[in-house]
Amino acid sequence: MKVGFIGLGSMGSAIAANLLKGGHELWVWNRSPQAPQRLADAGAHIAASAEQAFEAEVVFSMLADDAAVRAVLLDSGVLERSGKPRAHINMATVSPAFAEELAERHRACEVDYVAAPVMGRPDVAAAAKLNILAAGPASVIARVQPLFDLIGQKTWPCGEQPARANVLKLAINLMLAAAVESLGEAAALVDAHGIAPAALIEIISNSLFPGPVYGGYGGLIAAQRYEPAAFKAVLALKDVRLALAAGEQARVPLPMGSVVRDSLIDAMAHGDGDKDLAVLGLVSARRAGQAV
Amino acid sequence: MKVGFIGLGSMGSAIAANLLKGGHELWVWNRSPQAPQRLADAGAHIAASAEQAFEAEVVFSMLADDAAVRAVLLDSGVLERSGKPRAHINMATVSPAFAEELAERHRACEVDYVAAPVMGRPDVAAAAKLNILAAGPASVIARVQPLFDLIGQKTWPCGEQPARANVLKLAINLMLAAAVESLGEAAALVDAHGIAPAALIEIISNSLFPGPVYGGYGGLIAAQRYEPAAFKAVLALKDVRLALAAGEQARVPLPMGSVVRDSLIDAMAHGDGDKDLAVLGLVSARRAGQAV
Amino acid sequence: MKVGFIGLGSMGSAIAANLLKGGHELWVWNRSPQAPQRLADAGAHIAASAEQAFEAEVVFSMLADDAAVRAVLLDSGVLERSGKPRAHINMATVSPAFAEELAERHRACEVDYVAAPVMGRPDVAAAAKLNILAAGPASVIARVQPLFDLIGQKTWPCGEQPARANVLKLAINLMLAAAVESLGEAAALVDAHGIAPAALIEIISNSLFPGPVYGGYGGLIAAQRYEPAAFKAVLALKDVRLALAAGEQARVPLPMGSVVRDSLIDAMAHGDGDKDLAVLGLVSARRAGQAV
Amino acid sequence: MKVGFIGLGSMGSAIAANLLKGGHELWVWNRSPQAPQRLADAGAHIAASAEQAFEAEVVFSMLADDAAVRAVLLDSGVLERSGKPRAHINMATVSPAFAEELAERHRACEVDYVAAPVMGRPDVAAAAKLNILAAGPASVIARVQPLFDLIGQKTWPCGEQPARANVLKLAINLMLAAAVESLGEAAALVDAHGIAPAALIEIISNSLFPGPVYGGYGGLIAAQRYEPAAFKAVLALKDVRLALAAGEQARVPLPMGSVVRDSLIDAMAHGDGDKDLAVLGLVSARRAGQAV
Questions:
Q1: How far is C37 from A127, CA to CA, in rounded Å?
Q2: Is residue C183 within 8 Å of C221, Cβ to Cβ?
């Protein structure tokens, strides 16, 4: 199948590579031109424009945020001029309000639209083990399921309205960031009482809190290893901001989300925005006077 | 071996029953007299006083809080008069400050002392699947290890100073309560956007957040089922209060802990203190105007 | 002098009336047509369009928020086509980012621009007792000072960059909302201990906290009188949201601001957005189970 | 009249000096012996023991906290042995729970008991301008009113139950600390946008927020002058802790109080506990990466 792919950051590149391995004719495009070369070496066609990538039967996009999606697909006229793809699969974590606008705009252009934000860091994407939250017309999701199967371990159907997948993604990332904040606070607490945070992490990740989050971020916090970033603090802040906005829109106070937001801004203020979300551990340590 | 057991609430009874199954001569005592009958039927001896239970080689205690331990063992003179047991294993979640006082008092009376708070609800205790955080002299822990093996799936050595096991327990329960608060907030968020919280819980407990906490408490929140309580809100508030005090003592701000504390007090104010910790979901829903 | 006035809500009408009393030729315009009649009766000219009001020597605008200013003055082309007024005085509380954009757009059109957000409720505006935060070219502010003197008791010069007046306004409203939240919490605390909140308010407003805020909002909270609204909760939430955004933009965590935001969303969720900011007292009471 | 005075810190000394100026026979006592000399030079008698000071007709005490009052008056047996004074006026900020215990203990010993916590820093005490919150039997308060008039500008009757004066004092100090936190956050916000905090303080203290708190603490924050301390951060933390405990006891969540508590612990963690409460401004600045 002829497949387009727009947005080749660390997540996008990894996903695109797996689509390519599946034997599809892949047309890739990125805003900054250097990114696609590795994919080209692997057999991908480099599109001359977003518009060309949008001429495929199914086009995926993995752009940074609302503004990037708006700039590349809407303001540019790409969506309106095109009308060609049978389906556009938007993997970005966008705001629910923008998700609704996107759904409407695609409807007007008669392009099938599926919101498909994913869970997983770049290494998970590379291993084709993503969890995919897919919302849109069931028939469209069914049609692209073989493509999802090339890039993820599981597709979670989230209903017909695309915004729902985005709300779920935001709720999950809110919980993820809250878990990392709680790891940071607990690590600072035990450290202040003379206990190595690594001991705490070993216990919890082998008892109450198995799975990738507590063991993974907990291990980074215990080791005070905040780079390289698999999930940058600045991107986590973006997601928490969107979650809080989705809460405000629906009138849901999220006090724990507010705490996480403040801690992430603290990290930004100390120049740590490009470090891993685990840097919340450093914020907690600094509050406790433990940071050198 | 002759084993004593003081404190037969839902956790204590379940643990004592497993010691009994191990073939030990068990002497049990409870402050309110009705509790031990089921254990007596199973072969336990009912001690006439805490002091008599304290005459065993090893005595376990599972009392509610600092005040209960102080009343039963210190103010009563039981510890001082006794001196008999080769080891006292205190499973209660007490404050680190009191843990240090207890260690000192036991040293003065030449009674070996081990702090051994546990992780697990009563059903986990009944299944002998507890995780045990044990701190105290390594030789004493080694001696009672066969008893720990009868009641838990794993013993985590936490060092020689008993208070460390208590700090770790508080840090873990802080994280547990924070996770449940984040579940409540996330559930309110998706619910306000027309998504069943159960869908959120199914996704996260099968992806980022496997294990008993997110699936268990998340399931209760999604079902709005807050009774019967396996871990009462009022007891969770006690633990969070102790964690915050341990933080203040060591000068560690815990802003997420503060949020959880406020939500738990909100639950208490609405008469829900005896409901399960999952009632934090109801607090989030009420804040969002979703509660009927 | 020929003066224009755009935006005739409760604040705008009161201010415009005072300019009229000063003997100026006032041209007023409002988005919804019914508002200006009372002013017309008092001698104001009703402009046929925002553009006509913008033909005056000095034009004031008092619009609801960023979006309203953008719609009325920018997207409409009013600012670009005009170029006529010697000065535009923007009294709205807008975001610092938009304030900078506005300054730039006015510069490009060669229209003098002054940001002049005000402090004071509608009754203060009617009494010409506003405090005016004025930022823009000093010569322009000097030129319009006689007009400011007709509507306010004091003009505070805030520098040449218009955005600074907006940042100051947001910082002040953040403190105002925080003070009202603290009044609500303190009232709930004393009430729960059997003390009438009115007693607390009497003491503090005659000792540590004189002035309009603690006495005024405190009195409303003690009387549980949340209507009519002099400063609506929904507008306070807008200002707090802008303050938090200004904080995030400059990387300043504002944890107290986050608490106020959550409480205001709680008020919104309970249908109290159009009540007075004092309704934060009801939010505190509800959290404490005191609200009927 | 023969008057006793126990507790001669900076507040106690200033108050005692004013009682002395009123022509009373003053018997003073302090736990550390050096304090009273300046008072002795001014004519005060130095009591050999707390018990001797307690032999006066009316005895004031101004001790640090619950523990100090308990140690000096209860555990020592001073209250029980004495029975001599016609009234004991306790000016300390103690917990409501302890206030109730004290009332009961005094009743048992037939000593009239009045709780009379005060508002004002040491310089206010020296100027005899304190605000006195007095709770206890009306007849006793009437009897000691001439003494109150020597030390304060105003006595606020708070009812017959002593604990009420303490609850009011805690609610007021909670609001005070919240106001200072909001000053710190607002100062950090404007500073990050290039505006001198002093400009903000000048505006608000001459408009919305007149009075000693915003002008006083705001001035200290703007000047980054945290020493000498008129109200130490560590003592403010004590009061906030008592307020939160009084809230928990009566089931009142105080989220803004929780934020202040966390910020004060942050100050303690950075070695600033003995600096003025205004050091909350430094905490806000540090969170924003502004502190050097």
A1: 69
A2: yes
Which residue shows structure tokens 């409720």?
C121
CB within 8 Å: D262 and B259: no
For A268, the closest of C251, C258, C261 (CB atoms) is C251
- The neighbours of chain D, by the rule of 3 or more Cβ pairs under 8 Å, are A, B, C
Q: What is the pLDDT of residues D104-128, one digit of tens each?
A: 999 999 999 999 999 998 999 999 9
Q: What is the pLDDT of residue A83?
A: 65
Tokens representing B46? 């009912």
% of chain A with per-residue pLDDT over 70:
98
Catalytically active residues of A, by annotation: 169
| B178:A182 CB<8 A | yes
Contacts of C262 in chain B (CB under 8 A): 287
Check D208 against C176: CB less than 8 A apart.
Answer: yes
Mean pLDDT of chain D: 95
**Computed over its alpha carbons, how large is the radius of gyration of chain A?**
20
- Close Cβ partners of C101 (under 8 Å, ≥ 6 residues apart): none
Q: State whether C247 and A265 contact (CB < 8 Å).
A: yes
Residue D292 clears pLDDT 70, i.e. is over it: no
CB–CB of B154 and A256 under 8 A?
no
CB contact under 8 A, B266 and C287: yes
Closest chain B residue by Cα to residue A247? B189
- Choosing among A153, A170, A193, which should be mutated to test the B contact, i.e. which has the most B CBs within 10 A? A193
pLDDT number for residue D136: 97
Residues in chain B: 292
Distance CA(C176)–CA(D68), nearest Å, equals 37
Over residues D245-281, the pLDDT tens digits come to 999 999 999 999 999 999 999 999 999 999 999 999 9
By the 10 Å C-beta count (0-12 exposed, 13-18 middle, 19+ buried), C105 is classed as: middle
Mutate to test the interface with C, among D98, D118, D153, D254 (most CBs of C within 10 A): D254
d(CA C93, CA C169): 7
Residues of C in contact with B279 (CB under 8 A): none
Question: E-assigned strands of chain C?
Answer: 2-6, 25-29, 45-46, 58-61, 87-90, 112-115, 118-119, 130-134, 152-157
- What ipTM was reported for this prediction? 0.95
| Helix ranges restricted to H, chain D | 10-21, 37-41, 50-53, 66-69, 78-82, 96-109, 122-126, 138-151, 162-192, 197-205, 212-222, 233-249, 255-269, 280-287
* Assigned token pair, A27: 């047309």
Out of D158, D207, D289, name the one closest to residue C131 (CB). D207
- Chain Cα centroid distance, residue C89: 14
B117-133: average pLDDT: 95
Residues of B with CB under 8 A from a CB of D: 241, 247-248, 251-255, 258-259, 261-263, 265-266, 268-269
What is the mean pLDDT, run by run of 10 residues, along chain C of 292 residues? 94 96 96 82 94 94 95 93 83 95 95 96 94 97 97 96 97 98 98 97 97 97 96 96 97 98 98 98 98 71
This prediction has a pTM of: 0.96
Dmax over CA atoms of chain A, in Å, equals 64
Q: Is residue D155 pLDDT above 80, yes or no? A: yes
Q: Which two tokens stand for residue A6?
A: 């727009």
Q: Report, as ranges of residue numbers, the positions in chain A whose pLDDT lies below 50.
A: none
